Amino acid sequence: MKLLRYCVLLASFWVAGFAGAAVLDTLPTAMQQGGMIHIDVVFKDQNPGTFSSSLEFGGSVVPDLKPFSIWRPGDSVNPLKPWFDEIDPTQSAMQFSSRWGFRIDTDNSDPRPSGTSLGLRMLSSTSGLGAYFYSASGNGTFQPVFLTTGAPHDYVLWSGAMWHPYFTMPAGTPYGTPVSATFEFFLADTANVGDVDWTTTASAESGYSLGTQTITWTAIPEPSALAMLVAAGAAGMIFLRPRRRV
Predict the structure, then answer these.
(1) What is the pTM of this model?
(2) Is residue 241 pLDDT above 80, yes or no?
(3) C-alpha–C-alpha distance, residues 234 and 130, integer Å
(4) 135 lies in which domain range?
(5) Burial 136-172 (b: 16+ CB within 10 A, else e)
(6) Is residue 245 part of a domain?
């Protein structure tokens, strides 16, 4: 089954190459990658049990981290965009997904106390995992957040509005590699600036309990890596095929 999946991916890549290439100003959205899935966060202004969370579909959906060359075969990234160095097939060619997102369960949550915000902290992650705030508005934004190199904090301050970061893994991360990240939710003692604020410094309000949640992905390598695996598999099948008797 894995070999068949490799062949399908390679076929789509080669066909797209003959169809002509485009230079794109935007990255594939979560819907274009297969649909949104969410961590639903509940905040209760009481102790104990201040924060709780659940995974949409019970965590049964595990998104793929794929390179741009699979999401958009034959296309490339506008070199003027801030995500060019990380995403373009000629550059770092990171594998990525934005299907996982955060949203507040407004039906079951209490209003936050004045002057506070929701804190999202990445406690741990698979080695190499990155996370970026992405916006296609204007010249675009691709800001490292959480534990990603260049991020000012391991947390962001969040308004509760639905947010889908772009998570990345290095190019060539082997097929089927399990990838995960664990997050902590806390009530921050400072109001956020904008829906997602990665620059403001804040601390956790005392007297409020925390919540945690882990999300997962599966790594899918770039077509050049797939080609070598397919070639090896095809050679193996030829070697194992019984010889015809004469």
Answers:
(1) 0.84
(2) no
(3) 34
(4) 2-240
(5) eeeebebbbbbbbeebebebbbbbbeebbbbbbbebe
(6) no
